[in-house]
Amino acid sequence: MAFDPVNDPQRVQGIWFGGPMSENAKQGLRDLATRFPESQKFLWVMPRRRSGDTGKQEYDRLMAEYQQEAESTGFEIRNAYKEADWLAGNLDQSKFDGQTIRDIYTLEMGNQGFIAAKDLTAMLINSRETSLTLDLSHRHMREGELEAAKNHREYNAEAAAPIEYDKAELKVIDLSQGQRVLMRNPMQTDFLPHGQKFPEADMEPSFTPHLDVNGFYSQVGTKGQEVMTAGAEAWLSNYANMVQAADKGNFITFAEQSGPKRLVPETISIDRADPTDPNYQRDRDNWLSAKFNTQDPDREQVIGYMAVNSLSDAIHMVYGEPSHEPHPDNTVMPTRTVSDQVWKDITMQAYDVNGLRVIPGLNLTKDAQNSWRERDKPEDPQNLHTQVVKDGVQQSLLAGNKMTVLHATNLGVQQAQQRGDTSGLQDPVKFVLADRRPATTGNSPNQTPPRLPSPNMNQLAADVAGMQIPNSDTVAQNSEVVQAAAMVRSTSAPANNNAGGRAQ
User: Fold this and answer.
1) Helices marked H in 74-97 — which ranges?
2) What pLDDT score does 456 carry?
3) For 160, 359, 424, 448, which has the most beta carbons within 10 A of its beta carbon?
4) How does 348-382 read in b/e, with b if 16+ C-beta sit within 10 Å?
5) How far apart are alpha carbons 50 and 239 in whole angstroms?
6) What values do phi and psi take at 174, rounded to 5?
7) How are beta strands 11-18 and 131-134 bridged, if at all?
8) How far apart are CA 280 and CA 275, in angstroms?
9) For the whole prediction, is pTM greater than 0.85?
10) Distance CA 350, CA 214 (A)
11) Nearest in space to 435 (alpha carbons), one of 476, 487, 486
12) What is the DSSP letter of 259?
């Protein structure tokens, strides 16, 4: 086959930052290679970098892994950190340059901010060259998925038409089937989607489509490239605004290297606003704290809204026209409004089908929703399930360092109920308790009981599913279950928060 400028994008670019590539990402590379065989293909990478010799060894190992996966699928490796100067080439150099980008990469990669770094990089890539840029959770559309999308209540043949790459200026995935679902106000100066009003200007919030920053196409020399450049600058400006607000509140201190285009914090406070205040999310003056505190419940919102609203604001800046809507009497100040026809021209619709996002315009489907976000968090020792892929099927297995016999009991009974077979829940099952006393004499408090092997909780849950519910004659055995749970809980392994992450 020969390259077709109408049906083939000139370049297809994927991004992976952080730790080892997941199996889903590797499959994404293979599917993109199959879907776009005639396009140039690049994989942008940036391994996490820990300190010391061990960190350097891990960095080299990850780069070798990325290189192997890329070469096996026809992708060429590009290192985002090393190409920061090139990526920043179209930015306003009086405000941002390659060193600004490297500073942000250093901050984000050191704080599991792989998604945030990926979002910025995707817009920077498209600010420089014609590209279809996608995260690696996209795969080739499977048989039957297009028909399922056509049966979606919001399906629109025009919005789902294949992209003509030689003519398209900009195509962004729209998750809202053409509806206006995100709230913005033209006079807002932050990235939040709240419905802030400006009564002195008689300005009401407006609604915009829900855009997906995980996949878009733009062409150099068109308004599409202007949008990507403006989107990256808006993202950086939002970042700068957060830093400035934190500086005013004395939530951040800077190292000597910091300057007009440098961001080198020495300390960042992660003190939270009062969560009992019903307005704390909207009125927080230290959003940088939420951004850098991996345990903050607002962190994902900061990362997501920064990317989505930066792109949306850029579209309004480039494609918007002055309008008095929704005030036909022209008594209020005009604002930049993007017409319905422009939104149709620059978006491609995604349809939710059985938990997948089918994108007919790309002949792709996005699966593993939010898989990067899960890896972007430290592992939760209280999480009792882990997702694994076995024989091509994603399965949920019991896991978690705090797993106890009581957890297994509850899950076992739940499994029995789900099967609709509770006939086995009549007679009790005795648990054999191991002797956990020290082997030494004197029972000195300085002696530590030996650690016993952890029980197989998956098997235990299955066994408990066949248990019989105790009756009044089995109270004695019931107490043994509680004792077993307490003893397992007392010897649970400590939480391991060294979670591997990655970026899209």
Assistant:
1) 84-87
2) 57
3) 359
4) bbbbebeebbbbbbbbbbbbbeebbbebbbebebe
5) 24
6) -110, 120
7) parallel
8) 6
9) no
10) 12
11) 487
12) B
